[in-house]
Structures are given as structure tokens and as C-alpha cells.
Amino acid sequence: MDSTPLESHLQPAFIDELPRRLSEALASAPACGFLSLTLPVRDFRGSPGLPAEGPAVWWGRPGEQRFRAGTGIAWEQAANGEGRFVRLGAEWRRLRAGWRALGLDGAPATRAAFLGFAFSPDAADPQLPNAMLCVPRAVVERRGNTTLMHFNGAPGDEADELVTAWSEAARQLVAAAWQGTPATDAAPQAAAPGLPADDPAWDERVRVALAAIAGLPLEKLVLTRRLQLALEQAPAVNRVLERLAARYPEAAVYAVQRDGTSLVGASPERLLGLEHGLVVADALAGSAPRATCDDADQQLGGQLLGDPKERAEHEVVVREILAALEPLCTALMASHAPSLLRLSNVQHLASHVHGRVRPEVGVFELLERMHPTPAVGGAPRAAALAWLREHGEANRGWYTGGVGWLDDAGGDVWVALRCALLEGRRASLYAGAGIVAGSRPEQELRETGWKLQAMLEALAVD
Predict the structure, then answer these.
(1) Cα–Cα distance for residue pair 284/55, rounded to 1 Å
(2) 451 a catalytic residue
(3) Is 277's pLDDT higher than 90?
(4) What angle do CA 61, 375, 422 make, to 5 degrees?
(5) CA 254, CA 265: separation in Å to the nearest integer?
(6) pLDDT class for 41, splitting at 50, 70, 90?
(7) Average of per-residue pLDDT values in the chain
(8) Element (H, E) at 371
(9) Are residues 163 and 210 in the same domain?
(10) Which residue in 141, 220, 313, 444 is the catalytic one?
(11) Which of the residues 171, 212, 316, 322 has an alpha carbon 20 to 30 A from that of 235?
């Protein structure tokens, strides 16, 4: 499969026509503080890709044939510390109050922003803000066979400069496009870099956590393993995304690019989805490997479903999500029993919580109550987070934070899992394990290995 960027291919015709179309739309647009224009694109060649340079974001739900790639910054707000979601929510409402969206040639009017945040509100990272809400300068969106391009900015008095910036952003998105379709093309088969067989500090970390669980009112603590690799060459981020999208169609595949650093991952766990007042959240806890033989794979899944320790860990997550959502909802229910979520390299116990939120509740009110769930932090939440901070276990950057998009219907935010932070030839991979009474260090280490395999395979050098 040819997944190289399209720099060498002819530019589609709409690029040549774009300045005129944008100028005409801008001239007839109503006065407003912030404007979005959406155009249908009928000759966009390939699938949306991540531009090679500058701030950019990429988002895909491969199984649903939905992809978004955005470049540049039309508007952005950052926040950190306690209350970061409250402050971002206030900025989001302030922006929307003066934001008009126009759909041209039958395209839907769209107002959307990318959201990302670290696990801990006080995490300091030179590469990425602690929490950010960003409206890219331009976004290309693929929904099945339909391609749209969104242009965002404050009109002001310099219309020509805005049109020039939009046109250049569109060219960058066209140049980044892939020839293949990541939702359907097979991922390249390549040997993954070797995974260290042992982690000398892991046993002691787990034993300290188990002692805390035995001696304090703690039920669960989630520990994070960080694996640092020196690669033979800097990975092509688009190739990494392509592999993740092909291998994990049920996941949310994502990338955030800033100043030569990219966070890339494929998350199987939705933190929250809000659409027209209906909220859904995933409870994912309890893991087992996959097997190549169907009979062995079914046996592993059956053992996971019947394992008392794994079921107890899972039930803690479901219970705590229900408790977090209950004050914000008028109706609420959870799956009667967990099912198996089977990924290519690991399977999980999965339940879903559904509710109808109160009229005044939006994404940021939900985040304030829900993040972090016990699946990535622990339980009870306050005591677990205090223990993680005290023992240096909360320094994870964006791993187990969140990534997603907000729009007029609500938002779709996923836990930042199965990810790697890429800086040139250096890669930092992350995986975690939930520690509860009865956990065994060697088994939890193996579980992190299953989870790390997703990014190890995606980073394989051709």
C-alpha cells in the first residue's frame, strides 16, 4: 500500500478555486467575533493525514469511517491546576456566544474544537499544555464517502490575510493526505522493537501499592509503566497512525503535534460521549491476552469473565462512574454484566453506563465529576489520587488524561491510552495496571506488556 504523502501528486481542482470561494463567502458572512465556513470537497485524494510541520491534530474512529485532521491554530485556550475544566468551560461558552458557522454548497454548518488534557491538573510538561481547547485554522473531515473542509478564524479587517492563511492550511492538509484508506487496508507486517522482559522497580512498586490497599481505605491504585526507546530513525507519524487505524478499528486513534513532539495513540476506552443530552461512558477494567488459536482465545476470554479478582476490579469502576454521574443525570443505567472487548492484542472486561444529563450539564461539568475514573486512577478517587501524588505515580503527562472533540451536540472524549510521546528518534511508551487486593506483581507486569504491544508494533521500522 502506498501511504506516502501526496506532495508529488497533482493538487485537486478545489485548491485553485478555494481563494475565490472563501473570499466570496467571507464578504457575505454576517458580522461576528469568530467564523467557521464549511465546504464539501469532491476531489480530495486519499484519507486525511497529519501535516508534517506546525501544530496539528488527527482523530479517527476507523470502524465508523470517521476521520479528522486539523492544522494551525485559529483559537486556543490553556488551563492548569484545580478547576481547569471549569475555566476551559467558561472560555468555551464565551467563544460560542460570538461564533457563527456557515455551510456552503449544502455542507452542514459546523463549530468544533479539539480538547486534550493531562492526567493530573498540576502536571508540568514543556511539550504539551496541561489542558487545552483548540480550534484549528483548517480541518479536513471524512465521514464515509463524504469529505468536508472547515475553515475557522476571526474575520476582522484583514480578510485577504485570513483567506491566504486558510488557503495555505488547506494545501498542507492536501499534502498530508494518504493514498490508502486506513480503516480497511491491512497494516504492514513488521517486527516490533524488543520489549524488555523485566522491570527491576516494578515488583517493589506493586508491593508498596498492595500494602497501602491493605492498610488504608483504598480499593484500587493504578500504576503506570513508562518504556523509553531509542529508535533507529524518527518514525513517520502518519505511518504510525495508519497502522493503529488498521489494527484497532474499534478504538479512537489520535495524534497531537507541537514543536517537534507528537503524542500518538489508539484508545479503546471512551471517557464520555455527550450528544443532545444523552451521555455514555465506558467502564474498562480487567484484562487478558489474546491467542491465535480460536479455542484458546475463547478459553482466555471465558476465564477473564469468570475471574473473581478481575470482576471485582471491574465492578469498582462501574460503581464509581455511576456515583460520579448520578448528581448530573435525571436517568442513569449500566450494563447488567460486563462483556468482552476484544482488541487485536488484548481483551478487556467492558461495561457501558448510559444517562440523560440535566439541562445545565455539558462536557466540562461531566469532566469535573468523572475524570479520572478508577480505571486509570483508583478508588476511592480522592484517597487514590492523594496516594499517587505522594508516591510520584501521578507524573504521566497526557497518558490517562483525555483527548477528543467538542461540537454543538456535545462532545466525544476518550481516555489517552495505548500511546507514545515521540521526539525525533526518542519514544516514550506508556501502559498501566490496576492494583487491587490479590494482585500479583508478575501478572500485572505481563498485563502492561500486552498493552505496550500496540505501540511497539505501530513503531516498527520498515
Answers:
(1) 31
(2) no
(3) yes
(4) 55
(5) 5
(6) very high
(7) 90
(8) none
(9) no
(10) 220
(11) 171
- Domain presence at residue 299: yes
The model's pLDDT over 328-339, given as tens digits with 9 standing for 90+, comes to: 999 999 999 999
User: Which residue segment(s) compose the domain that 378 sits in?
Assistant: 202-247+271-458
* Same domain? 157 vs 295: no
Give the CATH number for residue 305.
3.60.120.10
423 is catalytic: no
Which residues touch 320 (CB under 8 Å, ≥6 apart)?
373, 374, 379, 380, 381
Whether residue 137 is found in the same domain as residue 230: no
Residue of 167, 170, 173 lying closest to 23 (CA atoms): 167
3-state percent breakdown (helix, strand, coil) of the chain, nearest 5: 30, 30, 35
**SS3 for 209?**
helix
Q: Are residues 146 and 241 in the same domain?
A: no
Do 170 and 208 reside in the same domain of the chain?
A: no
Q: Is residue 145 part of a domain?
A: yes
* 8-state DSSP, 54: S
**SS3 label, residue 251:** coil
Report the number of distinct structural domains present in the chain.
2
Average pLDDT over residues 32-50: 91
How far apart CA 403 and CA 79 sit, in angstroms, is 15
- Please indicate, yes or no, whether residues 86 and 17 belong to a single structural domain of this protein: yes
| pLDDT band with cut points at 50, 70 and 90 for residue 180 | low
Say yes or no: 109 and 43 in one domain: yes
Residue 431 in contact with residue 224, Cβ under 8 Å? Answer: yes
* CA distance linking residue 224 with residue 227, whole number of Å: 10
Comparing 72-81, 159-168, 281-290, the range with the smallest average pLDDT is 281-290
84 pLDDT more than 50: yes
Does one domain contain both 81 and 211?
A: no
Residue 266 · residue 255 · CB < 8 Å: no
What is the gyration radius of the CA atoms in the chain, in angstroms? 22
With respect to residue 259, please indicate whether it lies within any of the assigned structural domains: no
Residue 311 CB-density burial (10 A; 0-12 exposed, 13-18 middle, 19+ buried): middle
Residue of 141, 242, 269, 310 with catalytic role? 269
Confirm whether 188 is domain-assigned.
Answer: no
Nearest to 281 by CA among 410, 170, 105: 410
Q: So what's the pLDDT on residue 157?
A: 65
Element holding 249 (H helix, E strand) = none
Judged against a pLDDT cut of 90, whether residue 199 lies above it is answered with no
